Amino acid sequence: MDDIADKDALLLATLANVPFDGWSVAALRAGARAAGMDEARASALFPGGAAEMVEWFSDWADRAMLEHLAGIDLAAMKVRERVAEGVRARLAALLPHREAARRALAVLAQPQNAPLGLKLIYRTVDAIWYAAGDHATDFNFYTKRGLLAAVYSATMLCWLEDRSPDGSITEAFLARRLDEVMAIPKVLERLRKAAENLPNPLRFLHAAQRR
Q1: What is the DSSP code string of 36-82?
Q2: What angle in degrees, to the nearest 10, is found between the helix axes of 114-131 and 98-108?
Q3: Do the Cβ atoms of 31 and 17 come closer than 8 Å?
Q4: What percentage of the chain's residues is helix, strand, coil (to nearest 5)?
Q5: DSSP secondary-structure letter at 136?
Q6: Distance of alpha carbon 94 from alpha carbon 97, whole angstroms
Q7: DSSP letter at 165?
Q8: Running DSSP on this structure, what letter comes out for residue 22?
Q9: 79: which of 15, 69, 112, 117 lies 20 to 30 Å off by Cα?
Q10: Confidence check: pLDDT of 210 > 50
Q11: What are the backbone dihedrals phi and psi of residue 198, each rounded to the nearest 5 degrees, phi first?
Q12: What value, to the nearest 5°, has the Cα angle with vertex 164 and ends 104 and 21?
């Protein structure tokens, strides 16, 4: 197998141990044994330790999310629903590994891993927006991703504590957050248009100087 397949296999075998051992060498070694992989090979696949394992876990969940989205007709949905489906798909990929996801957040909360945490959330929301059909490169590109990063992060924290049988608490929370942020670009656009209709003080200053 190539490195990607090996890392996926090792990750999936390791996840069962993370709730007990955390994202640790012990969990990785147990995963290697379960996967029938030499421990030296396992260590070589994740030389960066816990942070690197968490990064691969995030990458694996992003790929699972995109695989789900590729199998549905996103074009038939409104943009808001496409984004919501992306968030749902990401959380669905993590559902069997909820405690591992919780412990992954703890790893990313460590000061030295803060830049990695930002990188991973950016990758996730960028993938969601791209799958939703947003390929823009203007200022809105960053605004949309920043807003979705806030929505996804808050929704994931809600999801980690959601014990409703059908995930209805998380679904309602996500709907509220999306309603809030989807209104922001419209408000900003109205403010921009209103500002264009306001008197330009520089124009009056220029006229005064010519008198």
Answers
A1: T--HHHHHHH-TTTHHHHHHHHHHHHHHHHHHHHHTS-GGGS-HHHH
A2: 130
A3: yes
A4: 80, 0, 20
A5: -
A6: 5
A7: T
A8: -
A9: 117
A10: no
A11: -75, 150
A12: 25
Separation CA 189–CA 182 (nearest Å):
12
pLDDT of residue 185: 58
Taking alpha carbons only, the member of 132, 138, 148, 134 closest to residue 184 is: 148
pLDDT at site 186: 58
User: C-alpha distances in angstroms, 189 versus 112, 145, 183, 192, 195?
Assistant: 38, 17, 10, 5, 10
Q: Which two tokens stand for residue 18?
A: 């993370």
CA 130/CA 152 separation, integer angstroms: 15
For 73-127, give the secondary structure using H, E and C.
CHHHCCHHHHHHHHHHHHHHHHHHHHHHHHHHHHHHCCHHHHHHHHHHHHHHHHH
Which residue is listed with tokens 């049988």? 165
Distance CA 104, CA 120 (A): 11
Could you report the per-residue pLDDT of 34-60, keeping only the tens digit for each? 999 999 999 999 999 999 999 999 999
Nearest to 129 by CA among 168, 181, 169, 57: 181
**Given a cut of 70, is residue 207 above it in pLDDT?**
no
Mapped onto helix, strand or coil, the DSSP state of residue 137 is coil
Residue 78's pLDDT band, with cuts at 50, 70 and 90, is very high
**CA–CA separation, 94 vs 59, rounded Å?**
12
* Residues 60-71: tens digit of each pLDDT: 999 999 999 999
